[in-house]
Amino acid sequence: MLSLPDDLRGAFKDPMGPVYTDTERLLADAGDPIVAVGDAVTYHLRVAGRDPDVAVIDGKTKREAVGAEIAAVLDGGNRRIEVDNPPATLSTAMLEALAEALADPDPVVIHVTGEEDLATVPALLVAPEGASVVYGQPNEGMVLVDVTAASKREARELLGKLDGDTAAALSALGVE
């Protein structure tokens, strides 16, 4: 549905919030619910005793398959939604899964065949204000983004810069 143009790749490299290396400190500052985007982030939150309300994983970290220790923690008993989402894209299935998972009162894992890297942007749009979206910043730590009116505006602007049908993407998310 949406794809990242090559000239915009740099816009997605800067962290959208503070970077944490201590999971306990991150959790002390996080809102509720928590959306985790990435396998390593989901692993660290679960090991710290906080199952994300929504976890978006693809079985990889830094484009390599996760190790057995991380995989064992990711294979929890939560409801799973399987989606295809090619690299550098946001598929309709991904967007619909985010909306469905956030509407579920129980924790949900969205398991992606492809890549989950861009899921942070629509997660900010569909998550309620007061929530937190946490994603990995390679070789730095975990980024905590509080869901506020301002972060929603920034996410909408970023989504609008992607190639494709933004209106259809917002509709798939259930966002006006």
Automatic annotation (TrEMBL):
<keyword id="KW-0342">GTP-binding</keyword>
<dbReference type="GO" id="GO:0016301">
    <property type="term" value="F:kinase activity"/>
</dbReference>
<feature type="binding site">
    <location>
        <position position="58"/>
    </location>
    <ligand>
        <name>GTP</name>
    </ligand>
</feature>
<dbReference type="GO" id="GO:0005525">
    <property type="term" value="F:GTP binding"/>
</dbReference>
<feature type="binding site">
    <location>
        <position position="41"/>
    </location>
    <ligand>
        <name>GTP</name>
    </ligand>
</feature>
<dbReference type="GO" id="GO:0015937">
    <property type="term" value="P:coenzyme A biosynthetic process"/>
</dbReference>
<comment type="function">
    <text>Catalyzes the GTP-dependent phosphorylation of the 3'-hydroxyl group of dephosphocoenzyme A to form coenzyme A (CoA).</text>
</comment>
<keyword id="KW-0173">Coenzyme A biosynthesis</keyword>
<keyword id="KW-0808">Transferase</keyword>
<feature type="binding site">
    <location>
        <position position="60"/>
    </location>
    <ligand>
        <name>GTP</name>
    </ligand>
</feature>
<comment type="pathway">
    <text>Cofactor biosynthesis; coenzyme A biosynthesis.</text>
</comment>
<keyword id="KW-0418">Kinase</keyword>
<feature type="binding site">
    <location>
        <position position="39"/>
    </location>
    <ligand>
        <name>GTP</name>
    </ligand>
</feature>
<protein>
    <recommendedName>
        <fullName>GTP-dependent dephospho-CoA kinase</fullName>
        <ecNumber>2.7.1.237</ecNumber>
    </recommendedName>
</protein>
<comment type="similarity">
    <text>Belongs to the GTP-dependent DPCK family.</text>
</comment>
<feature type="binding site">
    <location>
        <position position="116"/>
    </location>
    <ligand>
        <name>GTP</name>
    </ligand>
</feature>
<dbReference type="Pfam" id="PF04019">
    <property type="entry name" value="DUF359"/>
</dbReference>
<dbReference type="InterPro" id="IPR007164">
    <property type="entry name" value="GTP-dep_dephospho-CoA_kin"/>
</dbReference>
<keyword id="KW-0547">Nucleotide-binding</keyword>
